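Objective 1b. Sequence-to-structure analysis of Flavoprotein.
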Amino acid sequence: MRRVAWGITGGGQYLAESVRAMREVAAQHRVCTFVSKAGEEVLRMYGLLEELREISGGGYLEEIFLESESGRSFPMTGRLMIGRYDLLLIAPATSNTVAKIACGISDTIVTNAAALAEKAQVPVLVLPTDVREAVTRAPYAVNREMCNACEICPPQTACPQGAISGDGVRSIDLMRCDGCGTCLPLCSSSAIDAVRMNVRRRGIDQRNIEMLRERGYTILESPEEIPEAVAKTATGRHPPSAGA
């Protein structure tokens, strides 16, 4: 049984697929999750926070550590230095996160975990959002061209989070939306939807990914690789020490 540290950053690309893959991993291994501030926001937008709590149920080495609740020093990432985890998986890893790790910047809970894992020779697996061109789904939004600006808006009235606002053409506050989808069947003009879009790879993102590969990071190409990669990855070299 592996003791997996899982870092989640603020990318919608591969997020739902990574959560599904980690549910499979959690059936055989212990999963402790570290979530950046942006990651927390995006998990909520896509309605995945509750599913995450099922994967990391709260027992020892199965907690969820939110950056928003971890102070400025992220003390629990120190577990990586004392042998508490066999590997660190970052999935999805945004281009911002990959760039920071490539440049040695560790100012989020996830990039800090990566820095400590590398120092402690704990294997690090990374699934970059920009590893290849792909189609991704954006959070729910109102199509202004389709919205009929109804005087009474049933989706606005029914939204449990109060995320839909405005008179006339409405808008969705993504800081309040939890992706529940209650609004979808209630809109008579079908103006609420999650837009799909093509994601183009930038050259600089590919160069940053290659920098990580050269430093010994394992780069994953898709979420489907996660369960097998976790099972096959050699454990960290340091034996567990006393402490957290």
